[in-house]
């Protein structure tokens, strides 16, 4: 073994010591540069850096590592380095703290999770409850970052030492008590690699149910609404309930489609969600137990990549009360997700499914991340995450995208940072 290699092995085997330097005070240009310029004169390496600015106040933490005893060399002793850092802090009008310890990097990296919390508003009691559950599970909060402040408040916690399944169970229970939304996801590249979004349409991408809009024109709204509600709760077979409801539409003129297309209202934040994710080269799909006569216009309007829905039969200019072809039901939605993923050459593990009712269960279970959006209890219990705020674009926060990033991208494209659409 070469002498250089032997020295490298010996150094790596030595116990690593760490120094945590924390600067706090008014934010100004050049703080980070000044600190690292001083540290460059000493035989230390940078192990970690965290910096945050809250209302003009900077908190900068730098963890430096060195082997063996106190660092010595051309830059001087540990005392000299500390004195130099104190001079920088004094010049900048800031406070500085120094903490010594040993390198615990391996311990901190095990069981890394992201916990996303959404509230409208987000109360201190909710964060106390969430943090308490994390501590009770023996996990540690390593970092907290705000992702959004309007129209909902969203924070993301990076935690270590937690079992994902146990943490999800505990935090879901706490979320119900505190009336907030919580999502628990594993850290790592796979979280950033999700590239196909598959979304339900009725009561998810749009407000309300298309079949009820059609029923209003047929004069059978109450009857159809009751059947729809039971089906979404999982009390009725979806395919059978769809045929029963469609039969009530017999005789409607096909011009009704144009009227209903004008009555469809997108869920607040729908345009922002699709626009933001497509900027990131996500593929977007919709799958619906509704009807192609309506979903086709949504595909064209929003730039959707893939779609699947049922088709109402029309003869002699009128609805026959029947559906053409195979019905897109609960299993059909899951098959559509798999088909879209194959067409996009994207692994199932990199898909996100979003829905609200029982007929979305199979799709939610099949996806890499299943999200219940203002959903029925049966779906909320089965999903990986639940979002109960009325803004569809809140889903981008679960993917690690902040509100500031969304608005900055809109500004670059010449769009004003308006409230969610």
UniProtKB/TrEMBL annotation:
GO terms for biological process: L-serine biosynthetic process. Keywords: Amino-acid biosynthesis, Hydrolase, Magnesium, Metal-binding, Serine biosynthesis. GO terms for cellular component: cytoplasm. Pathway: Amino-acid biosynthesis; L-serine biosynthesis; L-serine from 3-phospho-D-glycerate: step 3/3. InterPro entries: ACT-like_dom_sf (IPR045865), ACT_dom (IPR002912), HAD-like_SerB (IPR050582), HAD-like_sf (IPR036412), HAD_sf (IPR023214), PSP (IPR004469), PSP_ACT (IPR049148). CDD domains: ACT_PSP_1, HAD_PSP. GO terms for molecular function: L-phosphoserine phosphatase activity; magnesium ion binding. It is an enzyme of class 3 (hydrolase). PANTHER family: PHOSPHOSERINE PHOSPHATASE (PTHR43344). Belongs to the HAD-like hydrolase superfamily. SerB family. This is phosphoserine phosphatase. It comes from Sphaerisporangium melleum. The lineage of its organism: Bacteria, Bacillati, Actinomycetota, Actinomycetes, Streptosporangiales.
């Amino acid at each position: 073994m070469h002498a250089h290699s032997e020295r490298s092995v010996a150094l790596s085997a030595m116990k690593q010591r760490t120094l945590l330097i924390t600067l706090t005070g008014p934010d100004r240009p050049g703080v980070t540069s000044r600190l690292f310029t001083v540290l460059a004169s000493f035989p230390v390496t940078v192990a970690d850096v965290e910096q945050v600015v809250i209302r003009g106040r900077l908190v900068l933490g730098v963890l430096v590592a060195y082997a063996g005893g106190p660092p010595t060399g051309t830059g001087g002793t540990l005392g000299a380095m500390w004195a130099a850092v104190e001079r920088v802090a004094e010049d900048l009008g800031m406070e500085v703290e120094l903490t010594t310890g040993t390198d615990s990097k391996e311990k901190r990296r095990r069981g890394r999770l992201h916990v996303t919390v959404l509230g409208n508003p987000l109360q201190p009691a909710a964060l106390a409850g969430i943090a308490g559950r994390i501590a009770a599970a023996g996990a540690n909060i390593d970092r907290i970052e705000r992702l959004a402040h309007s129209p909902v408040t969203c924070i993301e916690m990076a935690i270590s030492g937690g079992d994902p399944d146990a943490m999800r169970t505990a935090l879901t229970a706490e979320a119900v008590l505190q009336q907030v939304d919580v999502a628990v996801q594993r850290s790592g590249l796979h979280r950033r690699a999700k590239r196909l979004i598959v979304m339900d349409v009725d009561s998810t991408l749009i407000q309300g149910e298309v079949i009820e809009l059609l029923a209003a024109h047929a004069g059978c709204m109450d009857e159809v609404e009751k059947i729809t509600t039971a089906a979404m709760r999982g009390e009725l077979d979806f395919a059978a309930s769809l045929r029963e409801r469609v039969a009530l539409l017999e005789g409607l003129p096909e011009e009704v489609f144009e009227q209903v297309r004008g009555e469809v209202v997108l869920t607040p934040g729908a345009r922002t969600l699709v626009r933001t994710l497509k900027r990131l080269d996500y593929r977007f799909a919709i799958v619906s137990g509704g009807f192609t006569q309506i979903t086709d216009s949504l595909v064209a309007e929003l730039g959707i990549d893939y779609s699947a829905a049922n088709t109402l039969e029309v003869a002699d200019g009128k609805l026959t009360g029947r559906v053409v072809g195979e019905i897109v039901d609960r299993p059909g939605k899951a098959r559509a997700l798999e088909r879209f993923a194959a067409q996009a050459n994207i692994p199932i593990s990199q898909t996100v499914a979003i829905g609200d009712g029982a007929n979305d269960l199979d799709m939610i279970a099949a996806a890499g991340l299943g999200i219940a959006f203002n959903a029925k209890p049966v779906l909320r219990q089965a999903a990986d995450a639940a979002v109960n705020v009325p803004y569809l674009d809140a889903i981008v926060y679960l993917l690690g995208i902040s509100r500031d990033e969304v608005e900055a991208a809109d500004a670059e494209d010449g769009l004003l940072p308006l409230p969610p659409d």
